[in-house]
Write a structure and sequence with these properties.
Homeodomain-like_sf; 77% helix; DNA-bd_HTH_TetR-type_CS; 193 residues; DNA-binding; 0% strand; Tetracycline Repressor, domain 2; DNA binding; mainly alpha; HTH_TetR; Arc Repressor Mutant, subunit A
């Protein structure tokens, strides 16, 4: 096997393990999923998993990086399309269709883990900074007369809104829809260009 083939094989194995970890973590949480669960899900022995990830903590960290990057990429794509706030708030809108239930569960698990794990908070903060940097030119083009600070505040508030929606609407089926519509109208007038 050539060196590039070997590197490709190692990369594919890591991706297989991370994909299995995502399934296990979405089902049982970071602390409930065991290495045995991930071994069964991936079809690899525990020793093989430890060959690529020396500890469960390292596997959690690498999985969080993948989830956070996917979340950033998803938001960058969606927010660059200039969505209406109503679409962001409505869980069944086109805005959310590409973010699966499994991904929703994983995101909630990541946010929960961030509340007690500084390394996870750092990963999320890095991805958020990249997202803000990517969205800043989009917001500047849409609304060139506002200051850089105002753009930053708009983007940051929008991200807070999305995080809140992601955490709240996917677990609460009894949200007051007329109230969400009223808030959406207000936010559309003042938030998005």
């Amino acid at each position: 096997m050539t060196r590039p083939e070997q590197q490709d094989f190692l990369h594919q194995r890591k991706q297989l393990i991370i994909a299995a970890a995502k399934v296990c973590f979405s089902r049982s949480g970071f602390h409930g999923a065991s290495m045995a669960d991930m071994s069964a899900e991936s079809g690899l022995g525990a020793g093989q998993i430890y060959r690529y990830f020396s500890s469960k903590e390292l596997l959690v960290s690498e999985t969080v990086k993948v989830i956070a990057e996917e979340w950033r990429t998803f938001l960058e794509k969606k927010l660059s399309q200039q969505p209406e706030v109503a679409d962001i708030i409505a869980r069944d809108s086109a805005f959310w269709r590409e973010w699966s239930i499994k991904d929703q569960c994983l995101l909630l698990e990541v946010y929960s883990e961030a509340s007690r794990n500084a390394a996870v908070r750092d990963i999320l903060a890095q991805q958020e900074q990249q997202l803000i940097s990517a969205l800043e030119p989009v917001f500047q083009q849409q609304n060139p007369q506002i200051s850089a600070e105002q753009r930053f505040n708009q983007i940051h508030f929008l991200l807070l809104l999305i995080d809140g929606v992601a955490c709240r609407t996917f677990v609460d089926n009894d949200l007051n829809q007329p109230e969400l519509l009223r808030l959406s109208t207000i936010l559309n007038q003042h938030l998005l260009p």
